[in-house]
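Protein modeling request. Please complete all fields; requests missing the sequence field cannot be processed.
Requester role: graduate student
Desired output: 3D structure, token encoding
Chains: 1
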Amino acid sequence: MSTLFTPIKLGGVTLPNRVVVSPMCQYSAVDGTMTDWHLIHLGSMAVSGAGLTMVEATGVTREGRISHGCTGLYSDENEAAMKRVIDAYRRISRAPIGVQIGHAGRKASTQLPFQGGKPLSATESPWQTLAPSAIPFGENWHVPRAADAEDMRRLVDAFAAAATRAARAGFDVVELHAAHGYLLHQFLSPLSNTRNDDWGGSREKRMRLPLEVARAVRESWPNERVLGARISANDWMEGGAGPEDAVAFARELKALGYHYVCVSSGAIVPQARIPVAPGYQVGFAAQVKKAVPIAVRAVGMIVDPDQAESIVASGQADMVALARGLLDNPRWVWHAAEHFGVKLDYPRQYARCRADLWPGAALARPAGKAKAAA
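Delivered output (374 residues):
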């Protein structure tokens, strides 16, 4: 029996398996509003067989977007477009769907990655960025404005309002983005938060705003649906936050009623050197899981079915998330199930390509190709 293909219950929602489509920015929205690209992209993920599909990092305010092409949940138009996509997804798949909400902070106001990914120039409609301290992300980046008490009150309200919109749109899961160098992570990290007031200094003070946001989202989100957070376990820089900070934050989220954390790392400063390798963040997920009684998702260079199975079967994490692995091969879940002898229900329109119905499957897989070549 494959552990990867056993159900898991989070809150009042059951995922049919432990494979999650990771949130992946598509940079294809218009003023935060999803387009036909999102309908097609998420339609592809709907037939992937994954136990949960997470929609990309979505700004809780217009200024909280990474770029002009990022999705948002700050307007009626944003909400209506997301509902259109969710409704289409549900006509294809019974697997839950969720959204990751966040604010880019000092990493906002940038070009689309395939247009350079640099800070927007004066001719590209840039906007004033916001951060815990007036420290730019890197050389030649916009200098953010240090948030004051009123800014933080508005941020808390914006996250709560986005969660309410997500609930109305019909999402099963909301995930708070507190990693990858974005605003909540900026408050948590001593590399970006150098305040000496009630929102900076000690770990407890650096957690203050993220936990206020987490509490407001918890109060705005239906109890029967799933609530999680992506957190960072290592800044990969001297003086930065580490695994013990992730454990402390996860413990507080659990106390607030969060159902899971997805453990990631890095991206708080551009000069950090991350030793990227297969499963390079799994050890951090295992540390959090061992210390905190909360469901944990592992992410980062998880590309092989046996690797994914080992992670969940050994108890290092309860779920795994794939991003580029599923962009590269949207049928990854089907092939993993086949590898472990698990029979998935394919969409009826595609059932004829299942291995037990299509002799060509044996030749299409890498092992079959190698055998045929021999």
